[in-house]
Each structure stands twice: as structure tokens, then as C-alpha cells.
Amino acid sequence: MSITIKFEPSGQGIGVDVKRFYIPGVELSSPCPKCCYMCVHDLGSDYLSYPTANVPMEEGFYCDECGHEWNEWIVLRVSVEAAGDQ
Ligand SMILES: [Zn+2]
Asked: Distances in Å between the alpha carbon of 55 and those of 10, 16, 80?
């Protein structure tokens, strides 16, 4: 069997129409810029809300130690590839 996949991203991103988009197994860690406390977002329990894939988006962090807030840029990648014979 054979499949050809044409993938030409528009550059506009791909809207993911999901209010609570969980990604089990993915953790985002960022040290607080003020006190260096390591803040972790486990995307298995901390969801992304209506993310736009394939373009940079901001992820907000809040430090439980000192109350500082900051953003980091992440990209959620969506693509399609052949998986071969299963
Ligand atoms: Zn802090």
C-alpha cells in the first residue's frame, strides 16, 4: 500500500478547536526570572486552551514562591506522516 501526503503549511497556523487540549507526557519547565524557582506545567494535567498549532504562542507561568508572572514562547506542532504497514 502507498500514501502520498502533501503538506504545505499556510504559515497562518492551525486552529485547534479544543477548549482543554491535554498532552500527556509533555512537561514545560521554566525557572522564575526573579527567584529561580522551577515552575513546571505538566500538559497531562495543565491543558492548552484553543491553541494555534505551528506558530509561536505564549505560555504564561506563575511563580508559587514569589508571585512573579512571565511568558515563554512555545510551538505546538501538527503534521501528518505515513505510518507504514501496521
Ligand atoms: Zn519566583
From this structure: 10, 12, 16
Q: How far is the CA of 75 from the centre of ligand 1 (A)?
A: 24
* 25 CA to centre of ligand 1 in angstroms: 25
Q: Over range 3-19, report the average pLDDT.
A: 90
Task: Output the CA 32–ligand 1 centroid distance in Å.
Answer: 5
Instruction: Report how far residue 77's alpha carbon sits from residue 71's, in angstroms, rounded to the nearest whole number.
Output: 19
Rounded Cα distance between 38 and 46, Å, is 16
Q: Which of 21, 80, 8, 81 is nearest to 52 (CA)?
A: 21
- Name the pTM for this structure: 0.82
Domain range summary for the chain, segments of one domain joined by +: 14-75
